[in-house]
Amino acid sequence: MNKKCVILAGGPLEDCDKVKFQLEKQDYCIACDAGYQLADYFHIVPDLMVGDFDSYRGKIDPRVETYTVPAEKNDTDTMLGLKIGLEKGYRKFLIVGGFGGRLDHTVANLQSLVFLADKGASGEIRSNRNWATAIKEDTLALPRAENSYISVFAGDGVCTGVNLHGMKYPLEEYTLTPQFPLGISNEFLEETARISVRKGTLLVIISRKEGAVDKPAQAGV
Question: Which residues form the Thiamin pyrophosphokinase thiamin-binding domain (predicted)?
Fold first, then answer.
């Protein structure tokens, strides 16, 4: 079954108010603290709300199950939601509201994509202008995103056997390291970009070019 877990994180609404997604009957939605504001905006009644409630203090629909945790904890609210989704058997995740706010939380959310890939799951973060995913020792085919850059970074250390095809700047059996961002600001050359890594985990990011406003940057996993 192609079910997914949708995580509503606490990023600013103006960064994700144009994101398109649809909840299917078999999907599970978790609002993480201030992510409940996104649930209100998108007219969603989440299945679960989790967090330490240091960011959201408004009303909660009585139909929503809540799970409160201490503010002093190891996991971010978003990571807590991802772990709950994994425990419930979900292996496909969509994070909305994961960009655009505090830089430290943005980095943490990108790292959460690496965490999911390491668990054998797939995850993506969507915002109005950016989209991100991670692949571990795998191949990813992405349709051309107009007026967008596509960037590839080493996500968990040295990545070997990196191949980039269908792009302006191709790579063949290359070794990417976290110390040098060679994979930034590439561009689609063909209708499909193909990315693969033999060993390691790659972060893949699509970003809309400045002035491009015709549609959000989102590819899907």
Answer: 137-203
